[in-house]
Amino acid sequence: GLVFKIPVFFIQGAEDIQTPAGINKKYFKKIKAPRKKFFLLPKTEHGFNQSVIDTHFTIKKKYIVPTIKGL
Fold this sequence. Notes:
Distance between the termini: 26 Å
Structural class: alpha+beta
């Protein structure tokens, strides 16, 4: 689907050959959500690695925790 009632965050490796950034970015632009952000990680491929884990933490700390505290 393209319509979400929750925030949507994409974490994309710039060097990902399994799911290329260009394809994901086109889909992401079509998404309707109350908040959305696309994180393109340089020198990062597909899957979990330290930069992806660090970005997960940043998303939780910067975007999710403040939202939960506001409830």
